[in-house]
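Section 3.1 - Work completed
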Amino acid sequence: MTLQHDDAHQDLVARLADAAHQVEIGPAPCQAIVSEGRRRQRRRRVTTVAAVLVAACATGVAVTSLQDTADRSGKVGPASRTPAPLAPHTQELATGRADGVPWSVSVDVWEPAKNEAGAARLYAAMNDREFPDTERGGGYPYRDLLDEGWFFARARTGDKNWFPSDGPLPVKPTSRGHVESTWVRLKGEGADSWLVFGHTAPDVRGVVCTWSNGATTKVQPPVLHTIKGTDSRFFVVPVPKGGGPKSATATPECRSNS
């Protein structure tokens, strides 16, 4: 019995050995396992990014739709721009010295308004920068400022300044050859002299002023100024000694010679 058992055992061992020789054992599939893991990780990332993009797009569409609806309804919208402050075109017309005291005359030209809201803003700006006048522009709602600008002549002697003249500047002047002038007295700090400030229609190319002593002064460009904001022309001329006004109500005799 023992011999038979040993023979059977040896026969089994021999068969197992033959079977083992027929089996090919390859390397462990580590690389394949790693590659599969990476593919799954990338797939999860792509899925996450796609979900985020979908959510963002949905939010953007909702916000845009809300904005469009708000714009159409007029209840919500971007803040309107504040209009720029109004300012005149300013130009110095003449400078000099009277009895050793320096003087100057300049003019501010305000352009006409473009609409009624602009007329109200123009009226307020002129009142603030120049001087108030409730009748300027025809009074409230100042519709005259749609058809006419305004000028302000400003005189200075030493540390004093005042407005010897102001008035409307029609967009379409109807009077040809028109000349309007006023006396400007330079008085203060020892100065006591006269000037004449004037403005003319656009077609005037020259002015002649006749003084109370019989003398005359011709005014031509560049003393006859053109200023941005209007087609009217402006001038300032010194009055010779003894040529000032004979009375408080007298006006300068300045006329067109063109």
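Second construct:
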Amino acid sequence: MECIYCGSQNLLYDYMHGYIVCSNCGTINDDIFMEHYIPVKDGEIFKFKGLPTVREGFERKLAKNRLRQLAKVRRDVKIYENFAKKSRRGVYVDWDALQKRLQGDKSRIYKHVAEDSIKRAVDMDRLVRIIIEEIIEQDPVLSSRTLRGKVALAIILKHMILDSNIDMSRIAKETSLSKMHIKRLLTLIRTRMEFINKKLIELKSIVPKAISISQ
């Protein structure tokens, strides 16, 4: 097919507007989709109805996509609200984690308001990070705790490694947990000593190095 004006074979099919256009001279050579109108009386007003143009087809498709996206957002918000109603004081639903959960992931969707500050504190304490990585995350029971629980466990184990007193009130304050919760975690550690004692002894030998790195 050649351009009816300049004879060029460089023709572009403009599906958005429904035309065949010459890329050389810009001449519209033909319509991709012909429109056929028939008059339809609506009261005293005549309207023209016919087959949709290519542009209208795209616009309808985009409109449907927007409606589907809006419906998904509404559904997700409703799910979010249902989870939020079940949350405890100081706990919120993490939207990103919820999206992963809806896609089949097993991410924790509930997060405590203090988790971000706790993460920053952990990043500043190398020994606590080592304990979490080398002991807590390797133990099937201890690793099942929440972030705050893991950090509290790590702080308790840190005191054990350093042979210092375990101040439950201070640990409770640092991790935004109750003192009773800290007591339960301490009991949990005692039940797991058979499995983690060897690693504790190993960490005791590298404590000076770990502390010097963190300073």
